[in-house]
Specification:
The structure holds 2 protein chains of 2 kinds. By secondary structure, chain A is an alpha/beta fold. Chain A has a single domain, classed as TIM Barrel (Alpha-Beta Barrel). Chain A contains 10 helices and 12 strands. Chain A is globular. Chain A starts with a strand and ends in a 13-residue tail after the last helix. Chain A has an 8-stranded parallel β-barrel with strand order 1-4-5-6-7-10-11-12, surrounded by 8 helices. In chain A, α1 runs parallel beside α2 and α8 packs across α10. By secondary structure, chain B is of the alpha/beta class. Chain B has a single domain, classed as Rossmann fold. Helix content of chain B is about 25%, strand content about 35%. Chain B has 5 helices and 14 strands. In chain B, strands 2-1-3-4-14-13-12-9 form an 8-stranded mixed sheet. Chain B has a 4-stranded mixed sheet with strand order 6-5-7-11, with helices on one face. In chain B, α1 links the parallel β1 and β2. Classes of the chains: A alpha/beta, B alpha/beta. Chains A and B meet through loops of A and α1, β8, β10 and α5 of B.
Chain lengths: ~260, ~210
Amino acid sequence: MLARRVIPCLDVDKGRVVKGTKFLNLTDEGDPAELAERYAHEGADEIVFLDITAAHERRGTMLDVVRRTASRAFVPLTVGGGVRSVEEMRDVLRAGADKVSFNTAAVATPELLTACAARFGSQAVVCAIDARRLPGLPGSDPSWEVVTHGGRNATELDAVEWARRVVALGAGELLVTSMDRDGTRSGFDTELLLAIATRVRVPVIASGGAAGPDDFVAAVRDGKADAVLAASIFHRRMHSIASVKAAMAAAGIPVRITEESVA
Amino acid sequence: MADPRVKVAVVDYGAANMVSITRALAAVGADVTVAEDPAGMVGVDAIVVPGVGAAASAMDHLRERGLVDPLVDWVRAGKPCLGICLGFQILFECSDEGEATTLGLLPGKVAMLEDAPTLPHIGWNSVEFGRDDPLFRGVADGSYFYFVHSFAPEPTDLGVIAARTTHGRPFASAVSKGNLFGVQFHPEKSSEAGLRVLANFVALVGATV
C-alpha cells in the first residue's frame, strides 16, 4: 500500500532557512542541511527546499545546500525556485536533488516542462500551481485562477485546466497551493485539491493552510491528496511529523511509521 | 557496519543521481568509486548500476561509454552487482518503454504499471518479502521503501523474486540470483531501511572478497 507522504518545506534565503510572513520579516532559523537531516530523522518522507533568494547569486548557494543535505539525509529532495532551463535543472539534480519544482517558469515557458521531462523523466518534474479561488455565483461550482509571484500576478489560467495541461506537457507531480489559505492556518482547500486530484493521474501534493494533524487527514481523505506539505507548523514545533502521522494512521490512512520500519 | 576494504564502483552513464547513491554507499562503509567507462570497473569488488529516466536512452548512454559488454561479462562471471530502479529494469531482456532491448541478464520484460491508481508510482510503499533474502537481513517484512517509476519488471523465472510490492498490481520490487541483485526502489532515498539494504549488499560482497 502506497503511504501518504508528509513533507516539511524549508524556505531558503541565501543559504539559510528563514521564516516570515509573505516573504516579509524574515528571521534566520538555521542551516538547511542540519534542519533537513533532523526532519528526515523524525520521519519526513521527503524534503522540499524553496529558494526564495532574489535573483542571481542564488544558484551556487542552493547547490551547496542540496549537496550537503544529500550526503546526510537519505530521503528524497525537491528544489523549487529559480530553475529556468534544462541545464539549471541538471545542475540541481547532479547536486543530489531528485526533483525540481517549477512555478513561475512553467507559466512563462510551459515547454520547459516538456524539455526537462524528456531529459530527466517526468518523475523529476514537479509543477507547482498557486491557485486563488474566484468569486462565483452562489450555488455554482467553485473555480480557481493560477497566480504567480507569491500571488501578486494573476494569469487568467483556470487552475484545473492548467493542471491537466502541465501533466500533458510532462509534469509527473503537482504541488498545489491554495493562496487563500497559505499562511492562514485555516486548513487546506480540500475542494481545490479534489478538483485537481480527480482530473489528473499524477500524484498531488497539498500545500497551504496546515494548522494541525486533522488538516493532513482532511487533505488526504477529502482532497484525495497523495502527499501533504507544511512549513511553519513543523518549524515552530507546534506539531511533530510523528504526531501528524499518528493522526493519519488513526484515521486509517497508510503512513510510514519509522520506528517500525527497521527491525 | 561493512568492511571498508569493499570497493564498489557505481556506474555513471550520465542519467543517474550519482551524489545520493555514492554518499549512501560511503555512509555504510564501502570504498566507493565512479565508473564512467570499462576502466573504472577494473580492480573493484562490486558494481552498482543506478538509474533514473528512460530505458532506451539509458541503453544508448551505456553503449556510448562501451559499458554494455563489460557489465554483461561481469554479471555472467558471477561477480556482485546491484541494479537500482532503471538499473534494475535494464537487467531484463527488454522494456516496453521506448521498445528498448536491454541487458538480458534475467529472463523477462519490463512493462508499464497499467492498473496503477497514480502514475508515476511516486512515494513510500511497503515491500513484502517472498523469502528470507540476505539483502533484507535486519529489515522488517512490509517495511516502506521509496519508489519513483512507471514501469516494472515481469520476471519469467519467478524463483528470482525476493520481494513484491503492490501499486495497481503486484510487481517484483526486488530480485536476487546468486550475486546479482536488483531493487525497484531507491535504497539511497529510503532512510534507515534503505541504508540497511545497502549495508547488507556491501557485507555480502565483503564475504566474497
